[in-house]
Amino acid sequence: MKDYRDVKTFDELIEFEHGKIGSASRIKYEESAQMFIVSEMLKAARKAANLTQEQLAEKAGTKKSYISKLENGKGNIQLSTLIRIFEQGLNKKIGLTFL
Fold first, then answer.
1. Which CATH number, 1.10.260.40, 3.90.420.10, 1.10.3720.10, 1.10.287.610, labels domain 10-90?
2. Nearest one of 14, 15, 21, 44 to 99, comparing CA atoms
3. Among 46, 50, 93, CA closest to 66
């Protein structure tokens, strides 16, 4: 069992669990976390638009199974496809921030 007594902040917890920034474990964790966020945003936007996965797929020119994979964090997505799904399928603009 891990000893969390010296962990005081969220950043320390992430480092304790997944390693330092740049490590293979940390990179994998951060990629998964980002995909989770995108998948939840997609799901929430689709539901707010009162669309089924099939309807969204049709509007965005993709397949229902692809939308399902994305919403479940299982798919890998190209930026151009993400933009098309949000802009054509959901009438939403995407803004990117690089840190």
1. 1.10.260.40
2. 21
3. 46
- Among 99, 76, 89, 80, which Cα is nearest to 42's? 89
Query: Could you give the angle at which helices 10-18 and 24-48 cross, rounded to 10 degrees?
Result: 120
Structure tokens at 6: 């010296």
pLDDT digits 0-9 by tens, 17-62: 999 999 999 999 999 999 999 999 999 999 999 999 999 999 999 9
- pLDDT for 2 equals 87
DSSP run (H or E) holding 45: helix 24-48
Percent of the chain with pLDDT over 90: 85
Q: Are 43 and 71 in contact (CB under 8 A)?
A: yes
